[in-house]
Amino acid sequence: LGDRFELGLTLPTLYLQGAGFDGEGLNSFGVGDARLMVKALLTSNNRGFVASARLASDMPLSQLNPNTSLAGDGQFNGQLAFTTGFEDEAFRLGFDLGMLFRSPSTVGNTTMGHAITYGMGTEIELIPEVNTLVADVFGQVAPASLGASENQMPLEAAVGLRYYLASAFLQGGVGTGLIPAYGTPSYRVFFGAGFY
Fold first, then answer.
1. Half-sphere exposure (CA, 13 Å, Cβ side) for 48?
2. Is 107 within 8 Å of 70 (Cβ atoms)?
3. With bands split at pLDDT 50, 70 and 90, how would you rate the model's confidence at 184?
4. 162 contacts 170 by C-beta, under 8 angstroms
5. What's the CA angle centered on 159, arms 154 and 162, to 5 degrees?
6. Is this structure's pTM higher than 0.90?
7. Could you give the CA distance from residue 75 to residue 20 in angstroms, rounded to a whole number?
8. Which residues does residue 94 pair with via DSSP β-bridges, in sequence order?
9. Contact partners, residue 42, CB within 8 Å, separation at least 6
10. What is the rounded CA–CA span in Å between residue 194 and residue 162?
11. Using one digit for the tens of pLDDT, what is the confidence trace for 3-57?
């Protein structure tokens, strides 16, 4: 939307495999929670030092399939976040800090409430306008004082490659949990496509 605003919609599809909570295990394919996002550029340009703010909300589509209900919060939520960093033609580095607002919900024996979100990411252009190396570290701080049953600090890292095709891109990569907590995988493999 012009040079200062961005509107995004993410609809993840996923495959879940693991122990689960009932002892019978997970082995399901389904749709995750859809995310609607609006972002505004706060600085006068998008090169050099940049800063932006965004509002996002997850829609609990994962609850449509009981076998993939663990892939989402099970409710609508909202997030307000700010990102700052440096950007030029071939390199980007960003830092993100935000607040996730959600009603307390229980999965297994863990209750999750509001959370402080944070992350750091970089993009390095390997071949100009063809492919980019992407790396991210991201997590949450969900203390008992914000509605959780106990202090939780999930942290995850991911690395991937992005290929550009005209006004679209394809990407894929792998990730792993660094601090075990709710939602932190032993490993994660992801593929995606986007349009801009």
1. 4
2. yes
3. confident
4. yes
5. 135
6. no
7. 20
8. 85, 121
9. 51, 52, 53
10. 10
11. 789 999 888 877 767 666 566 666 777 777 888 999 999 998 778 999 999 999 9
- Write down the pLDDT at residue 23: 61
- From the list 3, 73, 78, the residue with the least C-alpha distance to 32 is 73
Could you give the residue ranges of the DSSP H alpha helices within 12-79?
none
Percent of the chain with pLDDT over 70: 86
How far apart, in whole angstroms, are the C-alpha atoms of residue 98 and residue 116?
6
Contact 60, 74 (CB under 8 A): yes
For residue 124, the tally of other CB atoms under 10 A from its CB is 12
What count of residues does the chain have?
196
Residue 110 or 153, more confident = 153
Please check whether residue 171 is in contact with residue 165, taking contact to mean a CB–CB distance below 8 angstroms: no
